[in-house]
Amino acid sequence: MTRRLAQVAKKVGVSEATVSRVLNGKQGVSEATRQSVLTALDVLGYERPTQLRGERARLVGLVLPELQNPIFPAFAEVIGSALAQQGLTPVLCTQTKGGVSEADYVDLLLQQQVSGVVFAGGLFAQADAPHDHYRLLAERQIPVVLMNASIAGLDFPCVACDDAVAVEQSWRHLESLGHERIGLVLGPADHMPSRRRLKAAEQAAGGSLGDEFIERSMFSLEGGQAAATRLLERGATGIVCASDPLALGAVRAARRLGLRVPQDVSVVGYDDSAFMTCTEPPLTTVRQPIEAMGRAAVELLILQIQGSDVPHSELLFDPELVVRGSTAQPSGVTGAAK
C-alpha cells in the first residue's frame, strides 16, 4: 500500500497524503487532482478501490469455455438476466480454439475494472491446466464465483451440480432396466467433475470399474462418437455420458455400427440442454438446475462486491434424471423393473 501511494504521488506530483485522501473518498481534493490520481492508478496498473470505479464498476466478466454446448448459452442467459436485475452488465468472454485464452480474457477484464467475474466452466476444473490468472484475481481481491468443481487450492466460492448423484441416478436407471455391461464416457483425466463421476460409477458398480468400460474424450459430439464406438465394440449395452453432446455422439456411434437406440443400446446424457426433447430418440439425461445455480452464483458475487464475507466452499445442487426415449431394456431381457 505504501509503495503504491509513493508511486502514484510521484506520477501525479502530489503528496502521498493527497493520494490517500482520494483513495479513501475524502473531501479537500480538487476534482482535477482526483481525476489525475485515478488516471495514474490505471496507468500504473493498480486496481481502483471499488467505490471509485464509477460506471466501469457495473461490469461483470462472464467467462465461458465454449458456446457449442447448449448448456453454456443457457447459463449465460440466466446469469446475464440476474446481473441485469442488479444493475450490472455482463461482459461475455468465450474461448475458441486458437483464439483468446482464458488468461488473456482475465487481463482484459482487469483493464476494464470489472467488479467481479463468473466462470461458468473453465480451466479451474482441470488439474494440469495453468491457473496463474485465477491467483492474479485473488491477489487483486476481485470477487469471483466458479461454476463447476474446481481443483484444490483455488480459494473461491463455487456453485456446482452434484456429479456423484448424477452418475448414481444414471447408473441405477440402466441397472433397473437390466443392463449389466454399462460404459462411461468422461472428459480428460485431469478434469475434476470427470474424476468425481468415475468414483461414483465405481461405487455404483460395487467396486472397481473395468478399464474396458471407461473412455475419455473431449467434450464434443465427435469425441462422444469415437469413445462410444470403442465401448460398443467391447460389448457395452448401456452408456452414461458426461454431457449431452457426448451422448448424441454415442447415439450416432450406435447407428453407424448398425445398432438401434434404445432397443440394442441405451444412452444417458448430462445437462438436459436445449432441444434434447427434439432428438431421435428424445434423450434420457440428467438435468442440471440451471436457473437455481445461475442465480446462486450471482447472489454470491453480489455479496462479495458489497464487501460481505461468503463461504469459499462448494455449494452443491441436486440433479434430476429425466427419462425419455434413449433408454430401454436391452434386447432379450425380460422382467426388468421399469
Automatic annotation (TrEMBL):
Matching SUPFAM superfamilies: lambda repressor-like DNA-binding domains (SSF47413), Periplasmic binding protein-like I (SSF53822)
TM region(s), chain numbering: none
InterPro entries: HTH_LacI, LacI/GalR-like_sensor, Lambda_DNA-bd_dom_sf, Peripla_BP_I
GO MF entry, a single one: transcription cis-regulatory region binding
Domain (HTH lacI-type) ranges: 3-57
Presence of keyword DNA-binding: yes
This protein's UniProt keywords: DNA-binding, Transcription, Transcription regulation
Name of this chain's protein: LacI family transcriptional regulator
Organism, scientific name: Streptomyces finlayi
